[in-house]
Design a protein that fits this description.
The chain has 49 residues and is an all-beta fold. The chain has a domain of 33 residues. It is built from no helices and three strands. Strands 1-2-3 form a three-stranded antiparallel β-sheet, with no helix packed on it. A hairpin with a 2-residue loop joins strand 1 and strand 2.
Length: 49
């Protein structure tokens, strides 16, 4: 993505690199770390048993 406010031409940047998302799937609380512009899902694990 091009940054129009950067003083140099042709500078690209990605914002932000990773997100941590907490949610529920079939009544189990989960935490997922995703990298939307890169690898996709980095890791996912349960927060309760």
């Amino acid at each position: 993505m091009f940054n129009p406010w950067h003083p140099m031409d042709d500078i690209e940047f990605e914002i932000p690199a990773r997100f941590r998302v907490d949610g529920y799937f079939e009544d189990v609380k989960l935490r997922v770390v995703v990298e939307p512009l890169g690898e996709g899902v980095i890791t996912a694990y349960t927060l309760q048993y």
